[in-house]
Amino acid sequence: MGMDFEFILGGITVSTMVLLFVLFNSASKKEATGLVHAENNGSSMITTTAENGNQHQEISPTSDIIIVGAGVAGSALAYTLGKEGRRVHVIERDLSEPDRIVGELLQPGGYLKLIELDLQDCVGEIDAQQVFGYALYKDGKNTKLSYSLEKFDSDVSGKSFHNGRFIQRMREKASTLPNVKLEQGTVTSLLEENGIIRGVNYKTRNGQELTAKAPLTIVCDGCFSNLRRSLCNPKVDVPSHFVGLVLENCNLPYENHGHVILGDPSPILFYPISSTEIRCLVDVPAGKKLPSLGNGDMARYLKTVVAPQVPPELHASFIAAVDKGNIRSMPNRSMPASPYSTPGALLMGDAFNMRHPLTGGGMTVALSDIVLLRNLLRPLHDLHDANALCKYLESFYTLRKPMASTINTLAGALYKVFCASPDPASKELRQACFDYLSLGGVFSDGPISLLSGCLCYHFSHYQG
Length: 464
Known about the structure:
- It contains twelve helices and 19 strands.
- By secondary structure, it is an alpha/beta fold.
- The chain folds into two domains: 65-127 and 162-236 and 335-462, FAD/NAD(P)-binding domain; 238-333, D-Amino Acid Oxidase, Chain A, domain 2 (2-Layer Sandwich).
- 46% of the residues are buried.
- The chain crosses the membrane at residues 7-24.
- It is found in: Membrane.
- Keywords: FAD, Flavoprotein, Membrane, Monooxygenase, Oxidoreductase, Transmembrane, Transmembrane helix.
């Protein structure tokens, strides 16, 4: 009995240590023609001639809102604001189906936000898979950590899928609204007049240079945004890279669960993205040189360093995926939200705020932000007073913090705890975290509820 008490007391101590670690780290640091509306929603064109003789056409401001980018955030926002009766003009660089190795896991809290936005059908008909929790692996031991979803409808769970299929479904749904126009084009700059953003300059897919105006421009052009510097102070950190593969013809040891291997030097992830495919993401931390894909170093690294750490049930399919050669990598980016107060413009999605994708919280944060913005804009019928609107929307940055800060901080802290380290204290913390979560029940319910976004969902839902 004494030993059990000491173990539980030790677990509570570990929990406190992890919480302090979290708080410390928090304080210290696209060609789909069918989607494009051909009409201009009644807008007219004004042609001007620049000094160099080039003709430039300006679309008269018949839109209420311009959205730059039609990824997860932009597409969801376009449908949401269009459904509210706003005239929305979306300009996306490439409307063909995206092919990415992230943005494939939507946490249950994010799915609840999707329901709030009436977009839950967008995970239908794309072979999306339900996810009910995680399996955690370390040094040959493993434990299953399930989401606490008893209070929700049976359909509520995590959802995993091909990112591009999900985005196309949301684009299609947004384009069904007559007051939403999706256009393929590249935004080259924001249009500023006397310190107020009045719209954007962009090039169409045919190279035509146009200017579109609206009282509010929302920039959602993703992690590689070329516009964010005008609207925020970007402090982008790259803590690691993900190397992505797709495994076929195998089953996960724990069905409908994500799998996290606390590997060396850093985590290895597995989760389903269709009924026949499993995504594998191998994390390579910033301190380690990313092996070259072109000269075969990456394949050798995956076979000699990573493969021995893969669960036996997945080993053969992992090697087959490496041999197949469709290996891709991308930088993992982290960027705190540091916006400038800019009349006429707003940042959203990964252009605005990023966290390490280990915990799959990015889409949950973006969808939560969209629900919040929709509710803030709802009572405003006229968006033309740019300065007053800017002052009003400053509350957005405060109201988003309960959800966004919790998920962002948890992602950064867990990544650091889950990485291998030669430091004895870090090793003990990593082992203690695994042991504590392995206790299950009340010991794992809280952390998993935070990870899933469900606990944060309650906070933001009842606050609103």
